[in-house]
Amino acid sequence: MLLQALIGFASQVVSASASIVPRQSSARAFCSSSDGRYKLSEFDAPVAGIGDPGGMSTWNLTIDDTPSGHKQQITGFGAAVTDATVTVFNQLSTDKKEQLLRELMTADGVNFSLMRHTIASSDLSGDPAYTYDDNGGNADPSLSWFNLGDRGTAMAAMLKAMKDLNPDMTVVGSPWAPPAWMQLDRKLTGTTEQNNLDHQYADQYAQYFVKYIQAYRDAGVPIDAITIQNEPLNSNAGFPTMYVYADEAGQLIRDKVGPALRAAGLDTTVWAYDHNTDVPSYPQTVLNTAPDYVDAVAWHCYANPLDWSVLTDFHASNPTVAQYMTECWTSSTSTPWNQASSFTMGPLQNWASGSIAWTLGTDTADGPRLSGSGPCPTCRGLVTVDGAGGGYEMQVDYYVLGQFSRFMARGGTVLAGTGSYTYGDGTGLESVASENPDGTRTVVVENKFGNDVYVRLGTKSGETWAGRVYANSVVTWVLPAVG
Predict the structure, then answer these.
(1) 430 is catalytic
(2) I need a surface site. Which of 221, 257, 356, 472 has the fewest CB within 10 A?
(3) Residue 149, class by beta-carbon neighbours within 10 Å (0-12 exposed, 13-18 middle, 19+ buried)?
(4) pTM here?
(5) Which one is catalytic: 231, 248, 430, 463?
(6) DSSP helix/strand/coil, 93
(7) pLDDT tens-digit readout, 417-460
(8) Rounded to whole angstroms, how far apart are CA atoms 306 and 175?
(9) Tens of pLDDT, residues 32-88
(10) Which one is catalytic: 42, 98, 193, 327?
């Protein structure tokens, strides 16, 4: 499809004056493509000036790389470490596992620096479902039976290994449910009736977080943030869940969880919500109720229709509150090649400071997972492990997410820009840019057309850059610092 006629949909036309004086390009480019030809591979570097499209379709973008264009700071990118992840990674030989972790957590690979982990069991856990204080289903008001158990200890060890490789890694923990004895139904799974917190145990609920954070700290894993409940509006009998109302969540954080963390001398913060973009009133209620303890909002991608501009609206009302995309699935059968780009690009364009995939690792059968019909049967990890063969394979989502995480540095700043557009049929071109702490600029371009596109980028600092973006791919340009 030729795009010359579509320039009207793109951004301001690159200024002629910016292209009159070309200069030596020290830029680089990298590409990951849907056809597997490119996997974070070195690609055609953009040239200074308007370049020569050679008959290719063209598209114009602009970025504001002056202080006026500075938006949110980047914390990082990563994925969820589930019990499934820990189980399959630990099936690898020591050398293979160390190699894999280096590819995930260092600049030699995709340099993940924002990891979410499951506090005890999720749907991506082997049977049986568990928490850190099950006590045979009996009440334990003193929490004397609290323990990480084998799986919690293995989880902490895996996160410690990741933290050793990337000391700047941010860890956020999310529970799928507290111990069954804290819930009105007294059951971890099997029913949605009275699937709510029993408030006679609200103090124990808060102390459960304290003990968990202390246990992981003692294992060498500082927990930077928690959400008090994964998907609080999702009540499912097939795996651990718990329904928590918005005002209830705010009151629990304000009156119980927040004070308990502070009394224990913990600097772990609380991120509100951890659910879909279609109920923004929920995190707003939590923030209004517990402003002293909540410094960020966590969003998931499962609203239908999905509209990331909700985050921009939320930022307008809460400009000092950080936002994150903390869960979006990838699948071998049900998500497109650009899934990881979509759930990272959209949030970054709308004030998110990072994005987290669901999930980091699974086996070749998209597990292990709890038995029954509740757990996701086709959630594929960014990495799949062949336990029998002793090897692993990076999926397209790994490479596509790496187009952001490897080049958009932690502590960088997202830049304002124009020119992104997606048509009703899903084709189009989307882009987001950042300025890294060393002054270099990163421009990530997602081409959703089945043909190569020649992109011309104008910068407010007065430069023009141009280059080819491969069909159905994500291409990242790393541009030198201004001047």
Answers:
(1) no
(2) 472
(3) middle
(4) 0.94
(5) 231
(6) coil
(7) 999 999 999 999 999 999 999 999 999 999 999 999 999 999 99
(8) 24
(9) 999 999 999 999 999 999 999 999 999 999 999 999 999 999 999 999 999 999 999
(10) 327
